[in-house]
Design goal:
Layout lengths: L3 H14 L3 E3 L8 E5 L8 E5 L6 H18 L7 E6 L11 E6 L2 E4 L19 H25 L6 H21 L4 H7 L5 H4 L7 H4 L7 H22 L1 H22 L9 H18 L5 H13 L7 H18 L6 H20 L11 H11 L3 H15 L2
Parallel strand pairs: 3-4, 4-5
Antiparallel strand pairs: 1-2, 2-3, 5-6
Helix pairs in contact: 1-3, 4-5, 4-8, 5-14, 8-9, 8-10, 8-11, 9-10, 9-12, 9-13, 10-11, 10-12, 12-13, 14-15
């Protein structure tokens, strides 16, 4: 008799009672189905097959590839695997995987009833296999539909970091525009937080390594970055969480500035592109591993960010530094646990290495003669005379180094 109804009985058991989900693999064979539940503490992966247990040894390479593929792409916390064979096979103690054989009034192999109560009685005879199979499938479908409705009703994680960052950038752009109506444009951007080594390193204003990301040099530059941030925020923040998203965005922004600072003398940099390239690196790797590399939105992000590489005041080195940081953050947050120590080491070496090189580099010169004076003039114009005088004294000391 066809074993379809027995497979359906097991599927119904795991899908409706233990929240497993069926998955489709390119190399899956017609006489097996795969289930996954990353939250299950006993087995995150299950295969149900009608094949004999003797065939496992010949399929080990394929099965290992499937297990590793699912564990990596679904970011499972563990890759524990249970192999279920329908039939009255004899399960030995030294099988390749944790295995059981199950059939009508038959069960052999490891006892998993502590984790799945009732499993020994799931497969049973039925007077009408076709009717029962239809009933079980309808029940499974209803369970799936109900779960989807509940998921839709759950409150989505708001894109807090995305929207807050966009708001800061909008406010900064407006204030910078107002300043530029009366003062020098370069000096205005420095006042608003641009990364300018004479101030960042010479005056120890290291906060500029982050705040430059909120400053933009033109309306095109601003709109491109805000569009990219919104797309990346929509694609990533809700799925990976605001904390990780913020760490990647701001961490990559800082790393981009540090790398730029050690490779270039005193170029002023503005824009959030370093952080965006860090996010893009994470999304690219996820897209490659998840099989949706040709995503339309991903293509837009790449084209926009390549385009802004040629906009004034935007450094390609900043993009490179942010992208490298993004790759390391991916290894840290989303890759195999076994590589986490390596990713931590890489992140420490990268940040500490370029950070040390940056702070020990004392080659500081103004962009042009009047830049620093123009910045001081703005502070005085804003009735910040005490701060302007303080800046003037500290700049003089920096010139003498």
């Amino acid at each position: 008799m066809d074993n379809t109804y027995k497979i359906t009985q097991l599927l119904h058991f795991f899908l409706t009672k233990f929240n497993y989900k069926s998955v489709i693999l390119s190399r899956v064979q017609k006489d097996e189905v795969w289930l996954v539940n990353g939250e299950n503490q006993t087995y995150s992966l299950i295969r149900i097959t009608t094949k004999s247990i003797e065939q496992v040894i010949y399929e080990k390479s394929r099965l290992d590839e499937s297990i590793n593929f699912l564990a990596n792409n679904l970011r499972l916390p563990n890759r524990t695997f249970l192999d279920i064979h329908i039939g009255k096979d004899i399960i030995l103690d030294d099988e390749v995987y944790d295995s059981i054989a199950i059939d009508n009034d038959y069960y052999d192999g490891i006892d998993v009833s502590f984790a799945y109560p009732g499993i020994k009685n799931v497969v049973h005879e039925t007077s009408d296999p076709i009717a029962e199979t239809k009933q079980l499938i309808n029940d499974i479908n209803e369970t799936v539909v109900t779960a989807r409705k509940q998921k839709r009703n759950l409150k989505k994680i708001p894109m807090i970091v995305t929207y807050v960052t966009m708001a800061i950038c909008v406010i900064n752009f407006i204030l910078s525009f107002l300043l530029q109506m009366n003062y020098d444009s370069v000096a205005s951007m420095i006042v608003m937080g641009a990364d300018y080594k004479m101030f960042t390193l010479g005056l120890n204003q290291f906060w500029r390594l982050l705040t430059y990301g909120f400053v933009h040099g033109s309306i095109i530059h601003f709109l491109m970055n805000m569009y990219s941030l919104y797309i990346l925020g929509s694609a990533l923040e809700e799925s990976i969480g605001s904390l990780k998203f913020g760490i990647i965005l701001y961490g990559s922004t800082i790393c981009g500035a540090l790398l730029n600072g050690i490779l270039l003398d005193n170029s002023m940099i503005v824009g959030l592109s370093g952080g965006l390239f860090g996010l893009m690196a994470v999304y690219l790797i996820m897209a490659y591993r998840g099989g949706y590399l040709s995503s339309y939105y991903l293509l837009q992000i790449i084209l926009v960010n390549v385009a802004i590489s040629f906009v004034a005041n935007v450094g390609i080195i900043v993009h490179l530094g942010g992208f490298i940081a993004g790759v390391i953050f991916y290894l840290l947050f989303f890759d195999n646990k076994s590589r986490r120590n390596l990713s931590i080491l890489l992140l420490v070496l990268y940040v500490v290495g370029i950070g040390f090189k940056y702070v020990t580099n004392r080659t500081i010169r103004p962009i042009y003669g009047g830049t620093d004076a123009a910045v001081v003039e703005i502070y005085r114009g804003l009735n910040m005379d005490f701060y302007a005088s303080n800046i003037t004294e500290r700049l003089y000391e920096a010139y003498l180094r």
